[in-house]
Each structure stands twice: as structure tokens, then as C-alpha cells.
């Protein structure tokens, strides 16, 4: 029955399904090809389904993907940075690259169509103790002329080059001193950075950086300490602010310049928030426990001018049990 259904399904539909599935699992083209002759023919004739390449395979395997993907751009993942030598031949087709860090070999390669670069530290591939950086100095505009999205998950990034690409989005987990360098290197072009802050900061001198085109800012704080941000950002065009931090003794937002924000998502409503901070907020989302939920409603009811342009108030109920959820619904109805 399964074979007959597969045989009747239009080729275009099969190709689209295989392409979507392959985006989540690079092995899909190999697996569906073993189902039946119809599927094998369809997937082998669908070059877009072979665009996601895992370099942690035998050379024959990733070369097969290079060949069957035709001239389409590639999404390449490699744990070992030394696999860079194996993609030189297709570097002109790599649109998205995931690697642990860069080695000097990359100097001989250019990636003209690469738009997204993800760099993760894998414990299996440790960097020499004398050079504990990710090789960020190799991320230059001549090498990556179209790089617009960068993700870095490491606390050892290395120096930032003068000709750093004009990024649109930046997602970074790094030591506080290096955050400023990355942000400042592309401050005029950044639109949506996401910064995870998991280190304490004690330097009283805070750097100030202006991001004139910033529209969305997500700030995550993983340490349970009430410490200052390592830099002060000026964001005159910010519209969306997302803060993922639930520190009990924190009375203010991690990011201060939010007077232009219309959409805000917090884990709880900080007691020290002023009318100035919330004066343009139209949508407020809180991912709060029941106690914080009650406190937030109380603050908003006590001071109707605190968030006077509010049009929609939303709560994420993941931290509430069934009884608390029912009570929360009743309180919201009364609040409206």
C-alpha cells in the first residue's frame, strides 16, 4: 500500500517534501532513496534535497552531495576545522557554514555567497593552549563579502579585524570585553543582535556604542547576579526588546535605552521600571511564575500610566499549574 501511494504522488510534491525534510536531517536523501524505486528516482532528480552537507562523513559521501546538488548553494557543517580543505572546491557555493573555529588554512579560501556563519566550540577539537581563539581575525570582508549573519558560541574569539563584514544579525556568547568589539565593528549595519551574558563584570568603565539601525535586541543573562552590562548601547530605532533573565534582585532592564520599543517580552515586570521605559509599549509579554504574574498585574493596576499605550498583555503559562492557570484567567478578565 505504501509503495502504491508513493508511486501516485506527483514528482513535484515528493521533491518539495524531501527538500524540507533534508533541511532538518542531512541523511534524508539517503534514507528515502531506500524506500522504493519511485522515491529513489525522485530524490536523485532533486538537487535541492542534497544541499545540506555533513563533512563528518567519508569523502565519498560528501562528494556525492556536492555532485547531486548540482549548482545550488550549500549548507555545510563540519566539526573539525581542518575539513576546510575538503570544501575549497565548492567554496563558491557555500551559503551557510557551521564550524568549530578557523585555522590558518582558511586564508587560501574565499566564500563569495556565504551569508550565515556559525562557530561553536566542540570539546573534541581543542585549540592549542597558546592560541585559544576561534580565529575571528580571519572573518574579513574580502573573504566573506556577503556575510550578514554570525553566530559565535565561545568565550575565546580572538581579535576583530579592521575589515569586519557589515553584519545584519549577531548571536554571541562571549566574554564581556569581546562583546563590545564585535558590536562596535558592525554598529552601523546591525539590525537584530542576540547576546548571551554568562560572565560577571566588575570594570566600572562601561563602553558606549550606538546602533542607529537596530530594530530587534534579545538579551539573555545566565548568571544569577545583579551586575552591570559590560557596555552601554544607544538604540534610537529599537522596536522589539526581548529579555531572558529572571534575577530576583534585579530592578531594572539589562538594556536601558528602550524608550522607542513597541513590543517587549520579559520574564517578569521589574519593580524599578518607569513610565519612560514603557511609554511606547503596545504589546507586553511576560513569561512568569504565578507570583510574578500577580505582581505584574498589581503594578499595572496600581499605576495606569506605567504602560498607558498597552494594547495587548500576554502571559506564558508554562510555569503555572492548572489551578494557578484558572486563577490567572479570572484575574486577566477582571484586568481587562
Automatic annotation (TrEMBL):
This is F-box domain-containing protein. It comes from Serendipita vermifera MAFF 305830.
